[in-house]
Amino acid sequence: MAELDTKMEAAEAGKEPLYLGDAIEFFLRSKRSGGRSEKTINDYHKKLELFQRWVSRDDYDVPLEQADADAIEAYVVYLKDSRSRRHKPAALSPSLGCTGDYC
Fold first, then answer.
1. How far apart are CA 72 and CA 78, in angstroms?
2. What Cα–Cα distance (Å) separates residue 51 from each residue in 4, 25, 59, 90, 100?
């Protein structure tokens, strides 16, 4: 935890960038000290880790400024698109070779 505090202080002083992974850890620590259950903390961690992997495009971590409002909005669109593709009725799926006005 002291390492995270040092990173936060350096970022606030403008000495080095804050990375998304550090911000996530700070957020989780804040929620834990606020009394959230471990189940809730684990759920936050899983969801934020998925976002981190998506926004970093297979790099381990990215500077926090890359996870801006535009990135979050793009991630939400990505999630909505992937859900709609998963729930598309099989009869309308182009991959099954359907034809007609509904494909």
1. 10
2. 20, 14, 12, 29, 37
Q: In sequence order, which residues have a C-beta less than 8 Å from that of residue 36 and are 6 or more positions away?
A: 44
User: For 40-82, how does the pLDDT look when each residue is reduced to its tens digit (9 = 90+)?
Assistant: 999 999 999 999 999 998 777 899 999 999 999 999 999 999 8
Write down the residue that tokens 């804040």 correspond to. 30
Q: Is the pTM of this model over 0.85?
A: no
Torsion of CA 6, 45, 51, 30, to 10 degrees: -40
d(CA 2, CA 17): 17
Query: Rounded to whole angstroms, how far apart are CA atoms 19 and 72?
Result: 15
Both structure tokens of 3: 């390492």
